[in-house]
Structure formats: C-alpha cells, structure tokens
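A student in our group prepared the protein record below, which I am reviewing. What it holds is a sequence and that sequence's fold in token form. My question to you is simply how this chain folds and whether the tokens agree. Do not assume that whoever made the record got everything right. I have pasted the whole thing underneath without changing anything:
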Amino acid sequence: MLKGRFRQRLSAAGLGFAGLVSALVTSTASAQGGGSLPLNTVARVPLSGPSVRFDYTSFDPSTSRLWISHMDANQLLAFDVVRRRIVRTVSAPGVHGVIAVPQLSRVYASATNAKEALTIDGHTGKILARAPAGQYPDGLAYDPVERHVFVSDETGGLETILTTAGRRIATISLGGEAGNVQYDARSRQILVDVQTRNDIAFIDPRTNRIIRRLPVPHCVNDHSLYVDSRHRLAFVVCDGNATLLTLDLRTMKFTGTFAVGDSPSSPRPHTARDASVSPSWPTTRTPSPSTRARTSSTSRFKAARPGVRSS
C-alpha cells in the first residue's frame, strides 16, 4: 500500500496542497466516522497569485486555517478550510517552510530569499518579528517543552533556534546540508535529516547538542522526514534515489524500504489514526539550490473525500 500510494501521480494543480486535502478530509472523515483513502473530489477552490510553485503547508485547527507557502509568488497564504477562501496574505520572499503553533497563536515561516525566519500572529497575519536564519532557511519544527523553534538552514548546514517571540538564541552545526526537521514528543528530541551525510542527527533541545547520529541505509540525500511519536515510527524519504524508509524509534532499526516514484516529497499520515504515509505534496519537493529545476503549478486546489479508488 505504501508503494502504491506514493506512486500515485496527482496533477500539478495539487502541488503544495495535499495538506489542505488532509485537513478537509480529516474534518469530513471525523463526521462520517471513517477516514481511509482513497478519495474523490468534493470541491475545487481557486487560490490567489500566479501559477507558480508552492511548498510547505501547516494546519491550525484552532482557527480552521491552512497556512500555505506560495513560494515563487513570495506569499504566505492563510486559507480558511471552512469558508474555503483565503483570509490573509503575508509577504514572505521565497517562503518555504511554515509551521502553525495553535497553543501560542503563532505561525513561523522561513522567508528563504530574505534569509529570515518570520514570527506571525496566527489571527491577524501581522509579522511580529524577523530573525536571521542562515543561508537557505527551509523546514521548521516546534518543541513545546523548551518552547523553541528549530529552523533548518539547508545549504548552511545549521539548525537555527528561536524563542517563541522569534529571537535567535543559538545555532547548531550539523556537519552537512540540512533536510527536514521534526520534534519527537516521546523522546523530547529534535530529529534532523543531514542529507549530504545520509544520516539523521538527534538533538537534545535542553542542551542544543547533537547526541546521536544514525546512518540511513540504501539512501541518497535524505531530505524529508516525518515522526509519528505515538506509534514510535519515523519515515525518511531519500529524493536522490526515490526511496522511503521506515524507522522504529524504539529499536533505532530500519524496518522497511519502498520505491516511491521519481522525485518523492515529505511524508504525512492520512489521518491521526493511520500510521501509513502519503506525500504532503505530490512527486516533486522544493529542490535544493544545487539541484533546483523550475516546476510550475496552477493556483487551484482540489479538495477530496473518501470513497472512490484511484488507479
């Protein structure tokens, strides 16, 4: 099932919006008492801006807003999934990563072209703070215990650490290019893909030090990462050889390897109850600066609901 789901190709219209699909599907599935894929269409919602690349998404259930990085339009969009329309547009040059933190009413985003991390009011969309975030700020993670935000500087090979107010307080050298970053709620550690080393760095956020490195076998460029703390699993996507690996976080052993198509992206679970994964945007991730290729997408979102099997 993993292999089939990853190999399913979606249209370019979906680039960047599988997170929005997940948000709407989760709401629909909860009401129906179900929640398994496959899906079928329930709505198509036009979005603002030109038909250029999107990147990360992050859903805030407290406001029913999906924050969408419209990367090549230099815009961060707040999309209301109930009213199905954009309610805020924030200027963010080359925005890549975004993470909503509902308990703080804050949104954090990486304005990559400005080499900054932005702290944003989750209700008003006002930019509250800007902090230097290295050469190529990308993905973000939030540690709710230490109350720090971690920002991956891809080409700089660093993790930049911010306070909840958006002030930079530290950096951690990773010894290679930084991929995705995730927080593991069980171990209370930060996990970072170090893609030019093909390993995962484990960081103790109390000391901001790397305490372990785990090589990723059969992997070329481990850029994408998802941690399922509840089930003690991690999913690592290697875009250099289109491979997904599953990691048992209890034993620190890799338990599965799957071919996932030509250019896989970040994995996400289908629902909170489902430990299987699907791309958070289909087939093409944001390329690293050394491998960037232009890929366009249309500013339309295709919502979906369960019920129809795709080929």
